[in-house]
Every structure is written in C-alpha cells, then in structure tokens.
Amino acid sequence: MGKIKYQTKNVIKDNIGNNIVKIRKEKGISQSMLVAKLNIIGCTVDRYAVSSIENNHSCDINLLADIKEVLGCTWNDLLK
Q1: Among 5, 12, 34, 70, whose Cα sits 20 to 30 Å from the Cα of 23?
Q2: 8 A C-beta contact, residue 75 and residue 68
Q3: Backbone angles phi and psi of 55, in degrees to 5
Q4: Taking CA 62 as the corner, what is the angle to CA 74 and CA 10, rounded to the nearest 5 degrees?
Q5: pTM of structure
C-alpha cells in the first residue's frame, strides 16, 4: 500500500499564495485589479491584505473564498 503524504500547514499556505499569483497572472489580473474586483463584490480589502496572502504571511478563509470567486477557480486550484 502507498503511504499517504500529509502536508504541513505552512506548505499549504505557501501553495495557496503561489497558486493565487499564478492564477491571477494567467488571467491577466494585476494585484490592484484583484483588490478592485474584491471590493466590487463587497469584500472590503486592501492591496496589503492580498499581498500578505500572496507572500504567504496570512491566510483568511473568508478572503480566500472571495478570491476564489473573483478568479473563477476551484478550491483545488488554490490548494494543490
């Protein structure tokens, strides 16, 4: 039987930040544009908060859900 590989919280957090940057850039969205789109859907956030997630410093689940919605991606895309 194969071994199950568990990732630590820090590895997952690092993946999320890197995946957000990758998806955002693939869609041609700047950080400022992402912040503007988040504010339009009612998520009061500033560029510092988005930058913090992208640089793996913080990870608020509610903000992640809004980012997922704005970027049009799945949880799998963010967490892989």
Answers
A1: 5
A2: yes
A3: -95, 15
A4: 75
A5: 0.82
How many CB atoms are closer than 10 A to CB 3? 5
- Angle of the 9-26 helix axis to the 47-54 helix axis, nearest 10: 120
Per-residue pLDDT at 38: 97
State phi, psi for 48 to the nearest 5 degrees: -60, -40
Are 14 and 57 in contact by the 8 Å Cβ rule? The answer is no
What would the two tokens of residue 18 be?
């890197």
H/E element holding 40? helix 31-40
Among 42, 53, 48, which Cα is nearest to 13's?
A: 53
From first to last of the 80 residues of the chain, give the pLDDT tens digit: 555 555 666 666 678 999 999 999 999 999 999 999 999 999 999 999 999 999 988 778 899 999 999 999 999 999 88
